Amino acid sequence: SNAAALVFWGKYRGKLSWRRDYVSHKLFATGGTKTYVDPKTGEVLDPAIGAAQTGYILRKTQLFFKEKGEDYKLSVAIIHMGYNDRERGPTVGFNNIQKTVDFLKSKGVSDVRVVLPKADINHRKHGDVGKWMKQLSDRLSKELSGAKLIANNGKFAGDGYHFTSRGYITIYNDALAGVQFSSPSEKEDTTAAGAGAGLKPLGPVAAA
What is the pTM of this model? Predict the structure, then answer.
């Protein structure tokens, strides 16, 4: 899962165990999806949901905030999803990513960052995924509003749509540092916030 791996290698590396702490949870029990939980309390740490489509992730993100309550406040949210929408990524996926950005803004998250999805368009088996993710990425760069677009500099793993461990670390660090994708059609003037600048980031709302 791109979500699980991005959160694990970027945020929880050395702090959580993949086998022990990436599990099914009652909030995210549909379709075999998993998320990270606190090994001591069993509390969901992030809506970092693997193996799900964008509509499901949006609904569960809304549920996550409801469960956390009105006092739950975030400074930064990182979104990286769309892969499991496949050919519907450029249409349904885009719409749900925009809705997710809008929802996070409505909950007071002032700094929302969307990592542009990508897959290997030349991969012998999964080239179609690369084509669909390029279409989604192109549309995000032209039409998405309310979020910073983060360049995806991750190195592909062998299947062409997941990334190496170092690739996930690169993506996560770039997202925290605000390494933006350059596009003349950005919808708002944004300033990159430095990683570690007192921010409390939300784990990526993403799917593999």
Answer: 0.84
